[in-house]
Fold this sequence. Notes:
The protein is α/β, with parallel strands linked by helices. Helices cover 30% and strands 27% of the residues. It has a single domain, classed as Rossmann fold (3-Layer(aba) Sandwich), CATH 3.40.50.620. The protein is built from 6 helices and 10 strands, in the order βαββαβαβαβαβαβββ. The N and C termini lie far apart (40 Å). The relative contact order is 0.18.
Amino acid sequence: xxxxxxxxxxxxxxxxxGKDSAWALHEARRSGNYDIAGALTxxxxxxxxxxxxxxxxxxxxxxxxxxxxxxxxxxIPYPCPNEIYERExxxxxxxxxxxxxxxxxxxxxxxxDLRAWREEKLRGIGMTAVFPLWLRPTDALARExxxxxxxxxxxxxxxxxxxxxxxGRRFDASLLADLPxxxxxxxxxxxxxxxxxxxxxxxxxxxxxxxxxxERDGFAFADLVAA
Length: 227
């Protein structure tokens, strides 16, 4: 067995399939501060889709292949009581710790309560949360992502905040111009979630096309499929 000489802290990227986690991966790799050993994703087993984002599991697999990252999947049912989510996530974190992981990288931008919750949970098992994008102005960050070659599509929108017609649209300058007043350009308040099909964190682009849009539980989901 070859011995590793990498002395950097071993980390996982909390991977949602969306732009913020993808850009956090990009920034963390550019910094060179961490040995990023895998991507941690929550999948709703009932649908075989990424939780909250509704992205098909085969597209998730294509992303992680393009990012050259092993997949670490936390599987949960639908609906998922909080105690089941916390139990399954704790199991994954304990296994990661046993594998030498000391840091988890998140794409959160400015939700302080969420950051505090993540930090508390990880601190309890002796791990550290990392936030490469923290407090970056979201309008400038959205435009930086687009200019940097990120290709993303809106996979789901909150119907209380956006029309269903936004689901499936490409995350680009035209979309930013069309967002109503009060909608965060990065969707940080849950207005929308994205699927990343290309960018500097990938070795290849993932071709997708927009399928049917389905409304459920107050959200509109664009079914993105491999093209």
